[in-house]
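Pilot study result, target chain (267 residues):
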Amino acid sequence: MPYFRDLRDKGKVEWVAMDMWTPYRQVIAGQLPQARIVVDRFHIQRTAVNAMEAIRKQIRRSLSPHQRLKMKNDRHVLLARPYKLRGNDSETLMKICQEFPELAVAYELKEAFLSIWDETKRADAENAFDHWAQCVPSNFAATFGKIVKTVADWREPVFAYWESPRVSNGYTENRNGFVQEINQSGRGYSFTALRARLLFNPRARAASTQIIRDPIAGDAPTFGKSTSFEFFVNRPRNRVHYKERVVEYGPSMEVLAKMLADGEFDD
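Predicted structure:
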């Protein structure tokens, strides 16, 4: 509340993307009443992924140790969108769905829910969701049924996405996940150490640092009374001086990602 209360130029804020947490909505309504709230699309989509995962884990608990290990190893094909499957992934997915019909229904519900965001108009997206909600089986009330209620409670912010300039927290969520990977690779850095590794890494900072040359106008030339051709050719010129300043845009995520892939945070 203090942050948004003291936010500079907050009257200019038009859109706010957020997770579905009531205190967030209350703060924005109180401090930025003119702004429209948009539920982050990745946050609401994750509810369908989590619902499918809950059903997968429930099925997995009833399997033999060998079957549980295999289902764990094949989990990535259930999480991926169909157009991202590679190699034998499509065949693996088909086998899983044939062997576990209940999981196949959960997978189809997950995919149908995510496909709502492929619509280009709000009305079409709302119609797609309403149709999806009617297709949720009663035995999935504890998982996918919760999503129906959640969207009902947040319907306006959820579907405001289609009227916004596609506002989301995707960039921030991606970076948060990246930070978690680095933290795990270091087997649990302290906050101070993790902050230093990320924000003050000299290689990462150097990659996003630029030297800006700001022009400083020199003295204007003094013109004589001569109007000859020779004067205009050889007339004094404005001399432009430059003042250099170093501008940093924070650590380069690309450099940090490469360092993570190379194992430089594994200590």
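One observation from the pilot: Confidence is low (pLDDT under 50) at residues 220-226. A full batch analysis is planned for the follow-on phase.
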